[in-house]
Amino acid sequence: KAGVTQTPRYLIKTRGQQVTLSCSPISGHRSVSWYQQTPGQGLQFLFEYFSETQRNKGNFPGRFSGRQFSNSRSEMNVSTLELGDSALYLCASSFVGPDTEAFFGQGTRLTVV
Amino acid sequence: GENVEQHPSTLSVQEGDSAVIKCTYSDSASNYFPWYKQELGKRPQLIIDIRSNVGEKKDQRIAVTLNKTAKHFSLHITETQPEDSAVYFCAASMNTGNQFYFGTGTSLTVIP
Asked: For a designed S-S bond to B98, which of A25, A31, A96, B44 qualifies (C-beta 3.0 to 4.6 A apart)?
């Protein structure tokens, strides 16, 4: 079956702009989480959606937001981009949520200039 | 919240030797501990996981041990091969959803 798909793979944006990233989970998976990966900080949790509801949220400013659609596809949005937002953004899907394996997408590489 | 620490940050071993990566966690409510391998330019992939009701789990050359009392868990790779070279992440999660707290990663290099 198809894996987790993230689009686009690469993005270059200018400081102050906004960006939307997309994540299509594995068919049947209802939980989607988002992570920011940077060389210095590793993988940091942004938020998790389950059945169109945000279930958990990490310690990121309100400029980072997300949503989930009825087909479990998820989007995350970053507004007023800053240079420090440059990172690899990964989403992970799982079947139920707690205590189950999470499958990662290949990520979206965001560069803010 | 949960804090996961991982050591070492870099590790070089000769092919055939063993590699050990250690992680500690802070929140006793954590009950699921996966390990992910991330090769350069690729997505993290689960290689082994352990739940809090188990002390040790093994899968061929890979094993993970968990000490709940001390709040630490370790990854052991035996008979290392060059294709084991990658960044390894430990993680911890609680029974609250698909939310993982990751360690900062260990870059493992296996020297042929």
From this structure: A31
Question: How far does the CA of residue B64 sit from the closest CA of chain A (Å)?
Answer: 16
DSSP-derived secondary structure for B55-98: SEEEETTEEEEEETTTTEEEEEE-S--GGG-EEEEEEEB-TTSS
Rounded to 5°, the CA angle A81-A84-A85 comes to 50
Strand partners, B77: B19, B62
- Of A40 and B111, which is predicted with more confidence? B111
B49 touches chain A (CB under 8 A): yes
pLDDT in tens, A32-80: 999 999 987 789 999 999 999 998 899 999 999 999 999 999 999 999 9
Cβ pair A48:B97 closer than 8 A: yes
Question: Is the Cβ pair B43, A105 closer than 8 Å?
Answer: yes
Residue of A nearest to B49 (CA): A101
Q: Enumerate the residues of chain A whose CB falls inside 8 A of the CB of residue B36.
A: 104
Residue for token pair 């440059």: A86
